[in-house]
């Protein structure tokens, strides 16, 4: 889910940025530093939308750097356990499939794909129901339920363990096709 | 990280930070991001170079999964039925058509002794679909 949230950060600024454009410099440095990052607590920072206030700077002894506490509003994307969301399938293999919901990578293990769906190899690997009415392949849109998340501290990659709550594949159509499966929950690792 | 363990969106346990924060539906995010993208476009010729991958992916995602063109109307539904921000946004993003579906997506609307019987939920879904029809 996307949120509009107020966050705070202490910005350290080199003295060469001081002057008339101090505020602009702080803001542009903040955008450079923060946008696109990911933390376990707040999720992905997608875009800064506004600055609430910039506090008084504090000169650091010995270096001349100044620390400014900055409060800013931003749009974040944070996946929650138990949340249901839509995602676009990016890769299908016999272990399951990968999907993307915005910046978040999601893996759905084949244990969590409904039993009546079979893996089909070929040019376009896919999962298909026995009657062929529902097909999951690259670029399909699926609805899924998140059963767990993991955040990598070193990389800006967020991963989720997924359960299939509902399988409403649209395959690019507007209406909802498929039936509603209630979720079984198991752990998969990504 | 005990807070992390208890997190469960189905029971509306999403942490204080996020319960207080404003939830955004995909269509709202799409408005915000496109506006920002336009601003960047004015400043430089090649805005795709300026934005982070996270921004780019989010923009593509919300454009693809945008449901409403008029998010304010959806907000009114929230006031009428006393939904939490998070619940409304899930409903607004997924647009369930039946009561059963809605409850499966947002189990918390049925709990906590709130006065949401099936009839009320059905009415709410109706209101939402009307907004979509008449925009």
What does this structure look like?
- The complex is a heterodimer of chains A (190) and B (135).
- Chain A has two domains: 2-77, Dna Ligase, domain 1 (2-Layer Sandwich), CATH 3.30.1490.120; 84-163, OB fold (Dihydrolipoamide Acetyltransferase, E2P) (Beta Barrel).
- Chain A has one helix spanning 22-34; strands at 2-13, 38-39, 43-54, 58-59, 66-77, 84-93, 96-101, 104-109, 117-120, 126-129, 135-136, 141-151, 158-163.
- In chain A, the strands form three sheets. In chain A, strands 1, 2, 3, 4 and 5 form a five-stranded antiparallel sheet that branches. A five-stranded mixed β-barrel of chain A has the order 6-7-8-13-12.
- Chain A is mainly β and 190 residues long.
- In chain A, strand 6 and strand 7 (96-101) form a beta hairpin.
- With 135 residues, chain B is an all-alpha fold.
- Chain B folds into two domains: 13-64, no CATH class; 71-133, RNA Polymerase II, Rpb4 subunit (Growth Hormone, Chain: A, Up-down Bundle).
- Helix content of chain B is 65%, strand content 2%.
- Chain B has nine helices and one strand.
- Chain B has helices at 2-6, 16-20, 26-43, 47-50, 53-64, 71-81, 85-94, 99-105, 118-133, and one strand at 22-24.
- In chain B, helix 6 packs antiparallel against helix 9 (118-133).
- The longest helix of chain B has 18 residues, at 26-43.
- The N and C termini of chain B lie far apart (44 Å).
- Strand 1 (2-13) of chain A pairs antiparallel with strand 1 of chain B, so a sheet runs across the interface.
- Chain B: This is RNA polymerase Rpb4/RPC9 core domain-containing protein.
- Chain B: InterPro entries: HRDC-like_sf, RNA_pol_Rpb4/RPC9_core, Rpb4-like, Rpb4/RPC9, Rpb4/RPC9_sf.
- Chain B: It holds the Pfam family RNA_pol_Rpb4.
- Chain B: One of its GO terms (biological process) is DNA-templated transcription initiation.
- Chain B: Residues 16-135 form the RNA polymerase Rpb4/RPC9 core domain.
């Amino acid at each position: 889910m996307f949120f509009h949230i107020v966050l705070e950060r202490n910005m350290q600024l080199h003295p060469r940025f001081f002057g008339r454009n101090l505020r602009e410099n702080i803001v542009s440095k903040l955008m450079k530093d923060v946008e696109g990052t990911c933390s376990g607590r707040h999720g992905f920072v997608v875009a800064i939308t506004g600055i609430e206030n910039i506090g008084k700077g504090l000169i650091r002894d010995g270096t001349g750097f100044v620390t400014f506490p900055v409060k800013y509003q931003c749009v974040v994307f944070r996946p929650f356990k138990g949340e249901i969301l839509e995602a676009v399938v990016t890769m299908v293999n016999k272990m399951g499939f990968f999907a993307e919901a915005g910046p978040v990578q999601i893996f759905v293990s084949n244990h969590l794909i409904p039993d009546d769906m079979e893996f089909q190899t070929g040019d376009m690997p896919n999962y298909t129901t026995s009657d062929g009415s529902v097909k999951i392949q690259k670029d399909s849109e699926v609805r899924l339920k998140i059963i767990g998340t993991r955040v990598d501290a070193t990389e800006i990659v967020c991963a989720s363990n997924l359960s299939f709550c509902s399988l409403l594949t649209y395959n690019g159509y507007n209406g909802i096709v498929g039936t509603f499966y209630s979720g079984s929950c198991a752990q998969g690792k990504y | 990280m005990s807070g992390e363990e208890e997190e469960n969106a189905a029971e509306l346990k999403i942490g204080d930070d996020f319960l207080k924060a404003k939830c955004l539906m995909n269509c709202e995010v799409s408005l915000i991001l496109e506006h920002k993208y336009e601003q960047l476009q004015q400043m430089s010729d090649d805005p795709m170079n300026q934005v982070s991958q996270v921004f780019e992916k989010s923009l593509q995602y919300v454009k693809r999964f945008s449901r409403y063109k008029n998010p304010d109307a959806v907000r009114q539904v929230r006031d009428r039925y006393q939904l939490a921000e998070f619940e409304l946004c899930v409903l607004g993003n997924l647009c369930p058509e039946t009561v059963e579906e809605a409850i499966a997506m947002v189990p918390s609307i049925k709990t906590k002794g709130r006065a949401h019987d099936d009839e009320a939920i059905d009415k709410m879904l109706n209101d939402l679909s009307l907004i979509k029809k008449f925009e």
